[in-house]
Amino acid sequence: MQRIFFSNLILMVLLNLLVKPIALFGIDATVQNRVGPENYGLYFSLLNLSVLFNILLDLGINNFTTKNLAQDPEKIKKYFSKVFSFRLVLFSIYSIFTFSLAFLLGYSGRPFYLLSFLMLNQFLVLSIAYLRSHFAGFHFFKTDAFISVLDRFLLIIIGGVWLFSTYAPSEIKIEEFIWIQTFCYASTLIIGLFLLIKHIEKPYLQWDFDFGISVIKKSWPYALLIVLMVLYTRIDGVMLERIHPNGAYEAGVYAQGFRLLDALFMFGMIFAGLLFPIFSRQLKTSLTVVLDLVKTSANLLLGGIVIIIFVTVFNASLILGWIYNDVQDAIGPFQFLMLGFFPIGMNFIFGTLLTANGNLKVLNSISAIGIVANISINIVLIPQHGALGAAIATFATQGVTAIAQFLYCIQKFKIPKKPIGVIKFILLSACLYYVSNFFSASTFLMLIQIITGTGLIFMLSLIDLKAIKKLILTSK
Prior knowledge:
The protein has helices spanning about 1-35, 35-50, 60-70, 75, 80-105, 110-135, 140-165, 175-195, 210-245, 245-280, 285-315, 315-325, 330-340, 340-355, 360-385, 385-410, 420-435, 445-460, 465-475. By secondary structure, it is mainly α. About 45% of the residues are buried.
């Protein structure tokens, strides 16, 4: 099972390394530089607003499908048409909730117009995720990997022509960027549906109210978990734009720092996406296999994250300067956001384990605490500190939820309490901190940090080189 995990992890990482950074930093960041922080800040705020209630487009159906398809493929795949039809009803409910909140927050006119397309994009994104939940459940990881990057690949092609070709307009509008995104998502959905059809019953619109209600009853705990997690991770951008005196600008500054975290978040999601169906299946048969995979994946993911944090925090001005025109105000927020990547990585491992095991009540309680903490800290810090305050709130919230999930996993799964594991991470961090203070921010320092960190990961046996080599050689 570890061989399956690592072989598909390598494929997913390679595809995402080739495509998503170009989309984020070549296209998305260029758009922000061209339209300015205020216009992009409005877009960023509206994008976060469109995400807040996107769980109403899903209600936990994707996670429910992945878990149950991995355990009983024949039982779930025949429900595709009913679920897809029901999602159209959910889109109407989602639209009502999102437009109502936008009205209460004081949006009107052009923001409403932009929000309508962003809401459509959310419907397309969640529909693509629903298709991918089938690929993951069937363990068609290669197809899942292809669909996971297709929309970004199309964005690079179309957005590249729009921004950089001889046909590129001298001035661009954020509306045009949103329209291009819509086309890319719609194209990906159509291609994904075509690839899935042969593995399920022929899809068609099939309205079944009783079926929809039964699915909601089964999946609502997943839905509640997701909406709570989205609230404490995405509400920052909306609160910034609404409650700070210069909200649009501060939201744009926050977006500068958040973009790299968002890119890295995608790679963490690869781990979670691969681990979830494997955890779901193995928890039924072998807890020993699960705990071995938890240890291996945690060491691999968190060891890499420690290196990334030191590279980005100590070279923040340099890295941001490669991407944006004006970065001075974004340095502090960026550093705190990157510090928050470690607890986010912990959530990818231990939160996924708890979700696969069905411990949703505990996860929902932890997430509710996260929301209260996040909103409270934001209310206190945003009016005076703007983007920096929001970044501090994110770091604190992620830390609280990660520690709570980790401690519960130790208790629930009887994970051996071996201080040596924590000591290894402390030694890794201490050595990197020592090295980082010898040089000023530069590509040379980044290279030293990467070489030192990678060497220490193997020296401290956070990654067993022989085991990794064996897994790669035996992968099919």
